[in-house]
Amino acid sequence: MPELPEVEVVRRGVAAHAVGRRIENAEIRGTRVARRHLPGPEDLAARLTGRSVVAVARRGKFLWLALDADEALVVHLGMSGQLLVADPERPDPAHLHARFVLDDGQELRFVDQRTFGGLALAGMDADGIPEPVRHIARDPFDPLFAPAEVAARMVRSSSGIKRLLLNQRLVSGIGNIYADEALWRARIHGERPGERLTRPAIVRLLGHARDVMAAALEQGGTSFDALYVNVNGQSGYFDRRLRAYGQEGRPCERCGTLIRREHFMNRSSHFCPRCQPVPRCGLPHSAHQG
DNA sequence: CCAACTACCTGTTAGC
DNA sequence: TGCTAACAGGTAGTTG
Hints:
The structure is a single chain. By secondary structure, this protein is an alpha+beta fold. It has two domains: 4-133, N-terminal domain of MutM-like DNA repair proteins; 147-271, Helicase, Ruva Protein, domain 3 (Orthogonal Bundle), CATH 1.10.8. Helix content is 23%, strand content 21%. It contains six helices and ten strands; from the N terminus they run αβαβββββββααααββ. The chain has helices at 4-18, 41-48, 147-154, 161-166, 176-186, 199-218; strands at 23-28, 53-59, 62-67, 71-76, 81-86, 96-102, 107-112, 118-123, 260-264, 267-271. A hairpin with a 2-residue loop joins strand 2 (53-59) and strand 3 (62-67). It binds a DNA duplex (16 and 16 nucleotides) through residues 1-3, 32, 36, 61, 76-80, 95, 112-117, 157-159, 163, 166, 168, 175-176, 224-225, 227, 265-268.
């Protein structure tokens, strides 16, 4: 379940090992990992061979290896994807889908149990954003992230605020874990419609999202089931600091009320029923926009 | 255009 | 013991 902090940990690891290196050999196994690379896995492997890694960048949960000639190897980790730097002597792990042999003899491996992740080669625009990432909004770590503008869009929506937080076209990088954590910090229930919040309240909420993700990044990210690891195969420690996500039945750290879990969008929402009261299913809002 | 629903996956765990 | 079902959930495509 890598979200922004976990992807950033991976980005830093890949950058430290791969920038300035040449891809001596590329191996793509199976078709699914390259399903978003329309010309197919053989084309992907052939076009990556011999390329140099110029930089490793990220927006939201997408990361990419910027290559020579303004192209990028776009990587999405999906639910369970891992990028691992390994000595070639180490045996292949289960679910190895791609291997890149670098010119220092080390391998960059893409491993993914649930195969929601994938790889694609794409061109970059003038801002250095690959084509498959163009529709993804800036994330809260982006220097040009504009919370007031995001809030202005959110207060025009009747959707629940958690749904809006998870909408990668509005703000990227936030997944189920950090959405629940940000809402707990802001004392807002995730089903409050955007239009029932004020713009300053949403700006504060986005600030909480940024803060909790920054704190998680300092701990090396959150890991629940050892699926998320950095490029050396190590887990982060932020799961010990979670206050809502995964805390069902435990007392809220602020008020002691037991944290509740409810089904939401085929997943779970965790919240404190006292600090984050369920919105009264009130009347259909008369609009108040300006 | 916007909102909501679903397919895509597999290892682990809970329940019978 | 062995089987089945639930669960984890980000993205893209479809439907309304």
